[in-house]
Design a protein that fits this description.
The chain has helices spanning 51-58, 90-97, 115-125, 131-144, 160-172, 190-206, 218-224, 242-247, 252-261, and strands at 13-22, 25-35, 40-45, 66-71, 74-75, 78-81, 84-87, 100-103, 178-182, 210-214, 227-232, 235-240. It is α/β, with parallel strands linked by helices and 267 residues long.
Length: 267
């Protein structure tokens, strides 16, 4: 892998033979995946199948046992030295990780910071923006997610749906090349889920950003994604367009999973 002009023709994310285990439990088992620029990819699967672990590896919150991840033509966990792949320095990994943003299940807002500072802090500290530049970017993003009037609020004063939008604005403030969403409706009250999903659908339509979404909301996955991946036991079992995955799955494991999670009225 290199960073010359040919890298622009490669997928934005390339994952090869990725392995992750926790003790004796194999969570990802030789996983291979390409994500093209601008793709909206939904990942579905049973609990414990490795979906969220994959996102955590992309965010360097977990370290793989084997395999490689490349983002925009650069290795995440490795770097080339004298023609050989060697473990990456911390500085290298942090720099490449800067191309990735993530919205977590519980949003992880800083409770001691008002909304504006929650969004502006990382661009100022990590990207080196001035306070004025960082706050201007934060206000623009808060306006985009419909929360310009909440800039001076504390996180605890927000609803779950509002916290989710602030978390999205905070991730977008770093201008990542790919955004990861990990079950971002799971922490919401049931009555807020529909509103949150509609907002994410609108965001996906408005922003030409590459997205990787782990979700248990099957209809949401069908509507927002141009690719759906079904992971089972740490392997990609099926990878296709939503219409194929949800209505004409080719694999028995996919059919069994969907039969278990979709009611007859949903199918």
């Amino acid at each position: 892998m290199n960073t010359n002009d040919s890298a622009t023709q490669q997928p934005l994310v390339q994952i090869r033979n990725l392995q992750k285990r926790f003790g004796d439990v194999v969570v990802l088992d030789g996983l291979n995946l390409d994500i093209e620029i601008g793709n909206h990819v939904a990942i579905i699967g049973r609990s414990g199948s490795g979906k969220s672990t994959l996102l955590r590896l992309l965010m360097t919150l977990e370290k793989p046992e084997a395999g490689t991840i490349c983002i925009d033509g650069e290795y995440l966990w490795h770097q080339q030295q004298n023609g050989q792949l060697v473990p990456a320095s911390l500085a290298h990994t942090r720099r490449v990780r800067g191309k990735v943003g993530m919205v977590f299940q519980h949003f992880n807002l800083f409770p001691h910071m008002r909304v504006l500072r929650n969004v502006a802090e990382a661009p100022r500290l990590v990207l080196g923006l001035s306070r004025r530049e960082a706050e201007a970017r934060a206000r623009e993003l808060l306006d985009r997610v419909g929360l310009s009037d909440k800039a001076d609020a504390w996180p605890q004063e927000l609803s779950g749906g509002q916290k989710q939008r602030v978390a999205i604005a905070r991730a977008m403030a770093m201008q990542p090349q790919i955004m990861l969403f990990d079950e971002v409706t799971s922490a919401l009250d049931p009555e807020l889920v529909g509103e949150a999903l509609q907002f994410l659908r609108e965001l996906a339509d408005e922003v030409s950003m590459t997205m990787l979404l782990v979700t248990h909301q099957m209809h949401f996955a069908e509507q927002i994604a141009d690719r759906v991946i079904f992971i089972d036991s740490g392997k990609i079992v099926e990878d296709d367009e939503p219409a194929v995955i949800f209505h004409h799955p080719r694999q028995q494991g996919t059919r069994e999973f969907l039969n278990a999670v979709l009611s007859p009225a949903d199918d």
